[in-house]
């Protein structure tokens, strides 16, 4: 009887181990499949950006710095993708996020160019890029959710025993945790210096241009009624 109980326990442990191993394999395959969806959309964006840059260049000469930044980020992202054989890395995720913000900043800046906004080719590129960005965002959320579930199983007890025995390694999230990278890039309008989107010009407090009347000598000390006097003395002159 005791032998039967031991055999049942051993069979149960083996069955649990096989089931856990297979669940890791399934989770890993889902992650790989969800990553391929992101990679397809990223490569589509790589193909669209050169046409966007050339179209904008013909209408917006003042955007030269922004266009060069987008081109450089696009080339850097493709090089990172090639060096990692298409696999997700934190470095590539950071560059892709910068590229997303740079393209978004360019789309905002074209509001200053009515002729460009009415260009048929530009409008089609804008539509395709917007759809591509939406698909990238949706695919990234799906991918990161699968990675989170997979990594949790690797860390959890008792499935971490199977993960360690079978050498299942944690998957890489495709997201950016550095707040500085998440900032939208500046938009250059010629004489206006580049600065991150959302920043505002320093607000200048009004100054009192009228001279206060001269008070006659008095035994009682005079107190200034100018509400900005002390503040203007302390006031000094967003990111470049």
Automatic annotation (TrEMBL):
Coiled coil: none
Secretion signal span: none
Bias-annotated ranges (Low complexity): 202-212
Pfam families xref list: LemA
Biased composition (Polar residues): 220-240
Taxonomic superkingdom: Bacteria
Region annotated Disordered, chain positions: 190-240
InterPro entries with a match to the protein in the record: MamQ_LemA
Protein name: LemA family protein
Organism expressing this protein natively: Tessaracoccus palaemonis
